[in-house]
Design brief:
Number of domains: 1
CATH topology: Fumarylacetoacetate hydrolase, domain 2
Radius of gyration: 16 Å
Oligomer: single chain
CATH class: Alpha Beta
CATH architecture: Alpha-Beta Complex
Strand content: 25-35%
Mean pLDDT: 95
CATH superfamily: Fumarylacetoacetase-like, C-terminal domain
Length: 203
């Protein structure tokens, strides 16, 4: 199982971090060990002093493929969830300043959280899926798939030019504006439309 992630897929988020807006999807990966298993506590990692949440829509790959044409890409995923791509922002910034890769800031064990799955067939309109994140009952992030620079099908097709996609792979599709810091004791809850998808306490 592979975890693909898309960076800078929302204009407002790219701007809030002072990043350039890319023409093509920016792809990075997390290892299988990054996935927080169900009913496993999430612990604030020892190596960072600036842990950020990034709430995202997540796709579940349901068919093996390579060099997928965008018009057929919808046949390669069958469910959507909401998740968090946790980021050690201080470490990421240091790596960027030195021109170094920043996997250690994104891909550490348990840095990827996903909620329950909703079949694509149950969605009214996958091109306009609303989602949001609450921290301690306060709304901190909200977005919609309609706001993405690169939609689901474009992302799947683009990834498949470089990597085979396989059944069970996950694709984090990018975070909207509003990312921010969280600390021990914070409670995070992700929603898709009006349905709670996950609840998490930072320990």
């Amino acid at each position: 199982m592979k975890i693909f992630c898309v960076g800078r897929n929302y204009v407002a988020h790219a701007k809030e971090l002072g990043n350039e807006i890319p023409d093509d999807p920016i792809i990075f990966m997390k290892p299988k060990s990054a996935l927080l298993q169900a009913h496993t506590p999430f612990y604030y990692p020892e190596f960072t002093n600036e842990l950020h949440y990034e709430c995202e829509l997540v796709l579940r790959v349901s068919k093996n493929g390579k060099y997928i044409q965008e018009r057929f890409a919808n046949k390669y995923y069958d469910a959507v969830s909401v998740g968090i791509d946790f980021t050690a922002r201080d470490i990421q910034q240091t790596c960027k300043e030195k021109g170094l890769p920043w996997e250690i800031a994104k891909s550490w064990d348990n840095s990827a959280v996903i909620g329950k799955w909703v079949p694509v067939a149950n969605l009214k309109n996958k091109k306009d899926i609303n989602f949001c994140l609450y921290k301690n009952k306060e709304l901190v992030q909200q977005g919609s798939s309609a706001m993405m620079m690169h939609n689901f099908d474009k992302i799947v097709a683009y990834i498949s030019n470089f990597f085979s996609v396989n059944i069970g792979d996950l694709i984090f599709t990018g975070t909207p504006a509003g990312v921010g810091e969280c600390v021990v004791g914070d409670e995070l809850e992700g929603f898709m439309e009006d349905e709670s998808m996950f609840e998490l306490e930072v320990k």
